Amino acid sequence: MLVDGFGRVATDLRVSLTDRCNLRCTYCMPPEGLEWLPKPELLTDDEVIRLVAVGVERLGITEVRYTGGEPLLRRGLVDLVTRTTALRPRPHVSLTTNGIGLSRLAEPLREAGLDRVNVSLDTLDRDTFVRLAHRDRLPDVLAGLAAAERAGLRPVKVNTVLMRDVNDHEAVPLLRFCLEKGYELRFIEQMPLDAQHGWRRENMVTADEILDRLTAEFTLLPDDAAARGSAPAETFLVDGGPARVGVIGSVTRPFCGACDRVRLTADGQIRNCLFAREESDLRAALRSGASDRELAERWTAAVAGKRAGHGIDDVGFLQPARPMSAIGG
Ligand code: SAM
Ligand code: SF4
């Protein structure tokens, strides 16, 4: 098992398949993009599966989420999902995506065994989308969402980051839209993980503010707190249910004490936290001939040293060197 010094057990593996993206969400990337990882540094499909298999077969990983960057840009994605769902014990396999290309890929991904999908959607307004993501792709995202629903990747979850004076007035319309479509919406507080280091606490739209906006229009009843477990979202039944909405207060209501995540970057580094300042290089070990057992030992050691919390409130807090897109959100 992957246990850290505080007794937390990591069972949820987030795998970044690429640091590239076809959007430039301002809370994540600068408009001009970033210097992408050189191809030889990226794990190949076989290497990804080898490491995921070590996690699943030897280290108790039960949930695998492919992310990025934009994972739909990874050519071998459908095959990776097929190979991941063939592992035993079969892990739960999901995807976090901006939805562009999902209208074409939702069905093949479902056939490959994908269990669920999270699609990021921050606005329903085309101009705001362009302002926020620097690309005119809102129709593609909406088409992707609809395709995921049609393919049966249910419940389709929607992730939203609100930014002050950009889309914070859309909390209610976004929830109405998701209720109407049957999507499960989760708001995520903006974290200091953008490549430009532009995050300011005073600009962050907090979980409290989001809930204030929502409760002005809807009755929100806290869902059974026990059901939250290690899930970061506080969920609420909307207008008596069964529809629900989640709020992830990563900064103001941290859930580090119950965190069960570990991350593998596209270039094969294990990170025990989004905000970790150290990484453990599994790619180098793998390419120099390490056995599965040796890889598992390295991975176990990397998780053992996980810190108690993200430390955003600490005086000496330093943003990690890699931005969200390169870590895997
Ligand atoms: N490109 C895919 C997408 O956008 O869903 C997957 C990668 S993206 C980094 C994963 C999630 O992280 C998205 O839901 C995105 O909104 C969120 N995210 C990115 N930067 C963030 C930040 N600074 N704070 C909070 N969430 C962030
Ligand atoms: Fe791309 Fe996702 Fe980052 Fe937006 S949040 S720029 S879609 S990786």
Protein traits:
329 residues, alpha/beta, TIM Barrel, twelve-stranded mixed β-sheet, two-stranded antiparallel sheet, 10 helices, globular, binds S-adenosylmethionine, binds iron/sulfur cluster
Quick structural summary:
By secondary structure, the chain is an alpha/beta fold. The chain has helices spanning 45-58, 77-85, 102-111, 126-133, 138-151, 171-181, 207-215, 282-287, 292-304, 324-327, and strands at 2-3, 9-10, 12-16, 63-67, 92-97, 116-120, 157-161, 184-188, 220-222, 234-238, 244-248, 261-264, 269-271, 280-281. Helices cover 30% and strands 17% of the residues.
Q: Whole-Å distance between the termini?
A: 23 Å
Number of discrete helical segments: 10
> How do the strands line up in the largest sheet?
9-10-11-8-7-6-5-4-3-12-13-14
The CATH C-level class name: Alpha Beta
Each distinct ligand? S-adenosylmethionine, iron/sulfur cluster
Q: Which fold name corresponds to the CATH topology?
A: TIM Barrel
Q: What integer value in Å does the Rg equal?
A: 19 Å
Topology as a string of helices (H) and strands (E): EEEHEHEHEHHEHEHEEEEEEHHH
Average pLDDT metric? 94
**Proportion of residues in extended strands:** 15-25%
The CATH architecture assignment turns out to be Alpha-Beta Barrel
What structural class results from the helix and strand content? alpha/beta
Which overall shape is indicated by the principal axes computed on the Cα atoms? Answer: globular
The percent range for helix content is 25-40%
Strands, total number: 14
Q: Characterize the largest beta sheet: strand count, sense, and whether it forms a barrel.
A: 12 strands, mixed
CATH-assigned homologous superfamily: Aldolase class I
> Could you name the ranges where pLDDT drops below 50 across 5 or more consecutive residues?
none
Count of individual domains: 1
